[in-house]
Specification:
The chain has 210 residues and is an all-alpha fold. The protein has one domain. It is 76% helix and 0% strand. The N and C termini lie close together (11 Å).
């Protein structure tokens, strides 16, 4: 992107770049694992994981309709941030957001998880829409700024995974089951990503990007 464009973004610091690619890797790995579990269901493994696999298998079509486009959105996000436009990227994000609402009907963590999805998915769609409108009006620097926010929120689903891992690892001590801690993990993961990216964006003197 031409440096003469108003609001031309600066590079992310190394720490945020590492966090971004870590989240991308986790998100894609989660999708691959879920697809494999749906295609080749097994009866072995921990009981908690088996119950989760069975639950997702109960609405496999919706699950695939959400996670495959979400994986594509995540993989395309670096390219979307490196150019002024990427055909279909915003439409893909809209689809991901719409299917996330549908998936919340089957929230493992009940209303606590569902509330996190409703809040942060709505935030994601609002930021994505604002980015699109800014880009359409030629305000590319500001458009990227809002796109960064939207992508960071979406990648919050990846940040929930290590949090869930802690809950799973300590379940023998806490006696918490997935239906009890999934909601907490969702709120923690999405909140971390939202606060980190917002804090960094506000620390910059000019609009920034990846």
């Amino acid at each position: 992107m031409d440096s003469s464009v108003k609001g031309n973004p600066q590079e992310f610091p190394a720490g945020l770049r590492f966090a971004f690619w870590t989240c991308v890797t986790i998100a894609v790995a989660v999708v691959v694992r879920r697809v494999v579990a749906l295609i080749f269901p097994t009866t072995g493994g921990p009981a908690q994981m088996a119950r989760l696999d069975a639950m997702f298998a109960g609405h496999a079509a919706l699950t695939l309709a959400h996670i495959l486009p979400a994986a594509a959105f995540v993989l395309l996000s670096p390219f979307a941030l490196s150019r002024r436009s990427l055909p279909g990227f915003y439409a893909l994000g809209l689809w991901v957001g719409a299917t996330a609402y549908a998936m919340s009907r089957y929230a493992v963590g009940g209303w606590l998880e569902r509330s996190a999805v409703l809040v942060f998915n709505t935030l994601f769609l609002w930021e994505l829409g604002r980015s699109y409108l800014l880009w359409r009006h030629g305000e590319f620097g500001q458009g990227r700024r809002w796109l960064i926010r939207a992508i960071a929120v979406l990648l919050g689903i990846a940040t929930t995974r290590p949090v869930m891992g802690v809950f799973f690892a300590t379940s023998r001590l806490t006696h918490l089951e997935p239906r009890q801690f999934f909601g907490m993990a969702f709120w923690i993961g999405f909140t971390i990503n939202t606060l980190v990216i917002e804090t960094w964006l506000r620390s910059q003197a000019t609009p920034v990007g990846l």
